From TrEMBL:
One of its GO terms (biological process) is respiratory chain complex IV assembly. Residues 51-217 are periplasmic. Exerts its effect at some terminal stage of cytochrome c oxidase synthesis, probably by being involved in the insertion of the copper B into subunit I. Residues 1-27 are cytoplasmic. InterPro entries: CtaG/Cox11_dom_sf, Cyt_c_oxidase_assmbl_CtaG. Residues 1-23 are annotated as: Disordered. It is a single-pass type II membrane protein. HAMAP family: CtaG (MF_00155). It comes from Bradyrhizobium forestalis. GO terms for cellular component: plasma membrane. It is found in: Cell inner membrane. This is Cytochrome c oxidase assembly protein CtaG. Its main location: membrane.
Length: 217
């Protein structure tokens, strides 16, 4: 009986026409790249939005010692409890100004509207500009410290050698007396730091200091 020829088969060989794996790999790479690009774009957008959102959050909550902005005196008026308010002043490098409070500390009734002055002098022989940042300490009382008028809201441009008095009108909200976490609070520190402004906005000359004092609350 004749034997049929034996045909050797290579089981590891793959059909020559099976080529979809490469296409599937490219498609997956495109999807992964698109997702990564979207994540990067989202992170960049979030970084730009973080600063204004953080500023809004601080103003709304008093977080990190950010003071509040009021338009008038408190409706329920001052209360008998008193508190000391200290005034701190700083100038960032690059701004040739002398900046200091006229009083280092005062004692006020909670709810009492008070006006204090800071003095700033441009010690340079050229016009310079700056803008102040501020906060209060302890940081948890920012939501109770209400400012009606403050020089920090606007850019300040000063002529060579100019000296200026800048008012701050504020009160401590009486509702702080209802916050028992602050029952032992005796002192609040209001701190300002002036930073240089590289491209100041040209503004008309300021009024005299006597006129400023007459026009303040």
């Amino acid at each position: 009986m004749d034997h049929e020829p034996t045909i050797s088969r290579d089981v590891s060989a793959k059909p020559a026409n099976l080529k979809p794996a490469k296409g599937r790999g490219l498609g997956r790479d495109v999807v992964v790249a698109s997702i990564c690009g979207g994540v990067v774009a989202l992170m960049v957008g979030a970084s730009y939005a973080a600063v204004p959102f953080y500023n809004w959050f601080c103003r709304a909550t008093g977080f990190n010692g950010t003071t509040q902005v009021a338009t008038s005196a408190p409706a329920n008026g001052p209360i008998a409890r008193k508190i000391s308010v200290r005034f701190d002043s700083n100038v960032a490098p690059g701004l040739p100004w002398k900046f200091e409070p006229e009083q280092s500390e005062i004692e006020v009734n909670i709810g009492q509207v008070v006006t204090v002055f800071y003095t700033v002098t441009n010690q340079a022989a050229r016009t310079t500009a700056g803008q102040a940042a501020y906060n209060v300490a302890p940081l948890t009382v920012g939501s109770y410290f209400q400012k009606i008028n403050c020089f920090c809201f606007t850019e300040q441009t000063m002529a060579p050698g100019e000296k200026r008095e800048m008012p701050v009108v504020f009160y401590v909200d009486p509702s702080i007396a209802e916050d028992h976490e602050n029952d032992g609070l005796n002192t609040i520190t209001l701190s300002y730091t002036f930073y240089p402004v590289k491209d100041p906005v040209v503004k008309p000359l300021a009024a005299s200091e006597d006129d400023k004092r007459k026009g303040n609350l």
